[in-house]
Amino acid sequence: MTNPLWPDSGKVPLDDNNLSPRIGFAYSLGDERPLVIRAGYGWFYTRIPQIYTSTIATDNGFSSYNLFLSNSDFYQHQIFPQYPNVLVNCPLSSTVCVPPANLTSYLSADVSSFAANYKTPKVEQASLSVEREVAHRLAVGASYIYVHGVDLLRARDVNLPPPTNVTYPVYDDSDTNLLGYYNVSSFSTWQFTQSLTCPFPPCINPLVRPIPQLGAINQYESAASSIYHGLTFSVRRRMTSGIYFRLAYTYGHAIDDGQDALVAGRPVTVQNSFSTKAERASSVTDQRHRFALSWVAEPRPFHRGHEMLGKFFNGWKLSGVVTVGSGRPIDARISGDANQDGNSTNDRLPGQGRNAFVGPDYATTDMRLSHRLVVHEHTKLEFLIETFNLFNRDNQRVKITDDGLQSNTGQFVQLDKHIGINYFPAYYRKPTNFLRATDAFAPRQIQMALRLTF
User: Fold this and answer.
1) Beta-carbon neighbour count of residue 275 at 10 Å?
2) Is the backbone of residue 101 left (phi > 0), alpha (psi -120 to 50) or beta?
3) CA distance 310 to 117
4) Which segments of 125-284 does DSSP mark as H helices, in order?
5) Is the per-residue pLDDT at 305 higher than 80?
6) pTM, whole model, 2 decimals?
7) Is the separation of the CB atoms in 358 and 389 below 8 Å?
């Protein structure tokens, strides 16, 4: 359903003229142990995930409304419910609850929609690899991969007025030590005259949207881009005498300016809808260094003449994967709504850009031991034991959170601060330990199994 206040709402875009060319080749130089060169290039288009089409169907400005009341506001205090009275009284069996008329001016409805010029996201990918066998069944190689995404999804709240620059003080955790000042683009103005709603100016005025009947208009645009460069060096041995292994090291860098426009139905909008340059940074999926070693060992020490010993000692298979990687980027967000855009999840630590910090590194060893016994001509019994994170490494995770149980996030506190002759309606509280690990990946796990095949 299309909302007349925003004609682009309720519409799913159709882009049916996409062409996806792909080309590749392989060439070998030399006769004995040749140097093999492989290359490829192609375009790829992605589908619109179902969660987006579901969101624009429900967030159309008709099916739900938001109500925000501040008891500290003089006018809103007059209609604020007093215990034990309820604000809205609706029968339990009702499917629609109509709010009283005195709340109409405080209701707002969010809208999600695709931009009128939306295009299907496109990714172009190119690769080049060289490989050569340097010994019997032992090959070394190097490969390069390039991935460039254009017209990627990014969410932007387009129902905002032009921002103005305001300055807030920045304090440490104790609220006593002034660390400096920070300028932020705010979508709400300051009031410097005394009134019933602002007894102690300056005060932060309520957000006034260009379309006052609607709240946030989260528009999905084909505006983001990404780029990835990856260089991999590898050594590989094909199965010989019961042993196979592959060792690889990758150096890569992923950069984008909008990773996810929608997470679990909640729009992830840019920090400043009028200036998106600050969004371009290392991707949340960026991992600069990665080492991986995988192997399979299937020894058969007993052959003819030792059938009984071979029945018990042959047929064992040991395999494993060792993975070591550098940390991934962390976006140091803060709680509160510093830029006053009605979204308390897109503001960052003062002076820091998107994904400006790097989390702890990661390392794990997974192994599997199996043995197969032939019970009968058509019956086999296999024993399995698998371990994950064999050495029980503490792979720490940093999660910027303020969930009431733990807090390592910065805060935007809307309380007055008096510094000399200057008054501020709010201030930043900057944590000193926000990169402290608050979570961890899975510890060591062991599982065993018996499998009967017949």
Assistant:
1) 11
2) alpha
3) 69
4) none
5) no
6) 0.84
7) no
Q: How many CA atoms does the CB half-sphere of 84 hold within 13 Å?
A: 0
pLDDT score at 267: 66
Report the 3 state secondary structure along 365-425. EEEEEEEEEEEECCEEEEEEEEEECCCCCCCEECCCCECCCCECCEEEECCCEEECCEEEC
Q: What is the pLDDT of residue 403?
A: 61
* Burial class of residue 325 (count of CB atoms within 10 Å of its CB; 0-12, 13-18, 19+): middle
Residue with tokens 């109409």: 104
pLDDT value, residue 40: 97
Strand-pairing partners, residue 87, are none
Place of tokens 């990627």: 152
DSSP annotation of 105:
G
**Phi, psi values for residue 313, rounded to 5°:** -105, -20
- What number of other Cβ atoms are within 10 A of residue 85's Cβ? 7
Give the separation between CA 245 and CA 452, rounded to whole angstroms.
28
Rounded CA separation 42/37 (Å): 17
Burial class (CB in 10 A: 0-12, 13-18, 19+), 270: buried
The answer to whether the CB of 269 falls within 8 A of the CB of 156 is: yes
Burial of 101 (0-12, 13-18, 19+ CB in 10 A): exposed
**What is the DSSP secondary structure assignment for residue 198, as one 8-state letter?**
-
In whole numbers, what is the pLDDT of the chain averaged over residues?
87
Kindly write down the DSSP assignment for every residue of 312-330, as one continuous string.
Answer: HHSSEEEEEEEEEEPPPEE
Cβ count near 372 (within 10 Å): 16
Give the separation between CA 407 and CA 173, rounded to whole angstroms. 11
Using alpha carbons, select from 238, 383, 246 the residue that is nearest to residue 320: 246
Cβ atoms 172, 122 nearer than 8 A: no
For 166-187, give the DSSP string. Answer: EEEEEE-TTS-SEEEEEEEEES
Distance CA 270, CA 104 (A): 29
Strands (E), 9-163: 22-29, 35-45, 66-67, 107-108, 111-114, 122-135, 138-157
Angle at CA of residue 453, ends 301 and 376, nearest 5°: 65
Position with higher pLDDT, 122 vs 71: 122
CA atoms within 13 A on the CB side of 234: 23
Least confident of 179-183, 296-300, 306-310, 444-448: 306-310
Q: Report d(CA 408, CA 435) in Å as an integer.
A: 8
